Amino acid sequence: MNQRLDYRKIAPDGVSAFRHFQAYVDQCGLEHSLLELVKIRASQINGCAFCLDMHTKSARAAGESEHRLYTLSAWRDTPFFSARERAALAWAEAVTTIANGPIDDSLYEDVRRYFSEKEIVDLTFAVIAINGWNRLAISCRIPPGNYQRIQAAELHGKATP
Known about the structure:
The chain is built from nine helices and no strands. The protein has helices at 7-10, 12-27, 32-46, 49-61, 66-71, 83-96, 105-114, 117-139, 152-159.
């Protein structure tokens, strides 16, 4: 796969704005491990190889187990995820696939059991952000496999797809 465009060079101001949004998400207070699971799950749904490579490496570097990463796409059928993680994953799937129909009230009520209103908004922002990065990486054909885990401060400035 050959890269089509280097959007970082073509539209640096847009990338900078998007990175600021991502920085908000990363600092919003939601658990890093939860955010990585959400990023990976949305990237699985969207088929974003670059983001899957990046976020599985980041999750592993932060201590996530390979066992949970291997079964993330079937999280509903495993006992390896907490109720809070399950609610976040269900919300992430619903927001990612929102074109398929509205988000059911019962799902919202389930998410409300585990997240405050601000956390729901921040979780939604996290899903919006990873879906945006997925769409950039997929449409510009950013090749996977070259991501190296770097310091978190550098992640927002240089490693984002």
